[in-house]
Amino acid sequence: MISKVISVCCFRDSATWQVASHFIVKNIPAAVYEVVVPDHEVEQFRAATASAITVVPESHYLKERTLGWLKSRFPSERAFRAGWYLQQFIKVEAVRQGAPDDLMLIWDADTVPLKPLSFNTGDGKVVYYRSDEHHLSYFETIKKMLDMDKIVDFSFIAQCFAVKAGWAQAFVNEIETRNGMHWVDAVLKHIDYEDGCSFSEYESMGTWLTHRHLDEMCLNNAQWQRLGNALIGNIGKLTNETAAELSKKYDFISFESWDHGQIALSN
Prior knowledge:
This protein is α/β, with parallel strands linked by helices.
C-alpha cells in the first residue's frame, strides 16, 4: 500500500484539482494524502479538496527556500520560471520525509486515476509508468549533478512517480555529497537558465534509480492519456460513467491547462 500520496497545486488549477482529488482517494489506496499549495491559498484549497486529503503549505517542506528566494537566484528575465522549478523541489522534499521503506507516490494534481491502481508488485518491486519524452537538457543537468547517463529507452515523465522514502533520501544525499552543497543549490548550479526547463524530478530520480535499484523496479506499459481536455472537452464532463468507459483503454488521464486541441477516442 502507498504510505503517502503527494500532489502539488496552485489556485489557478483548483477547478481541475477539485474533481481529480476525489478520484485520487477513490482509486489510489493510501495511508495519507496531501496536496501542497502556496501558503496564502491553504484556506481556499480546503474548500476545493476531498476531505480525506490534507492541505499543506509549501513552507512546510521548503522552509526558507520560498518562491521569492528562488526568483532571486534566477536571472531577472528568467525569474518567471522559478515556480515551475519550485513545485518539483517540493515533491522531492516531500517524498523523502518518511521511514526508509515507506512507499511515497507523487501524483500530478491535474491527473485523474480512472481505475484502482497499484504501485508495487507481489514481490516488492516498485511500479513505474512510461512515456516517450526526451528533453536533452534534463539529462545534461543529471550528468553534471550526478555523473549519470540515461540507461533506459523510455521517459519517467508519466504524471506520477512512486519511490521509497529511503531511496529519495539516498538520492538527495548523493547529490549533496558529490556537490558539497544543499541539493536544491546543486540543481540551481547546474541547470541551463536559458533553456527554461532544465530539471525534471521524475527523470532525475528515475535515472538515479536505474543506476542504484534497477532490480527493484517494474515497468507498467499500460496506456494513459495526457490530452484529457481534447479527448472529452474538459474535466467538468468527467462523470463516473465517462471515467469507467475511458478506463477500458487508459489507466489515468490528465487535464493540462495548455491542452486545447481535439482528438478522437478510438477503440
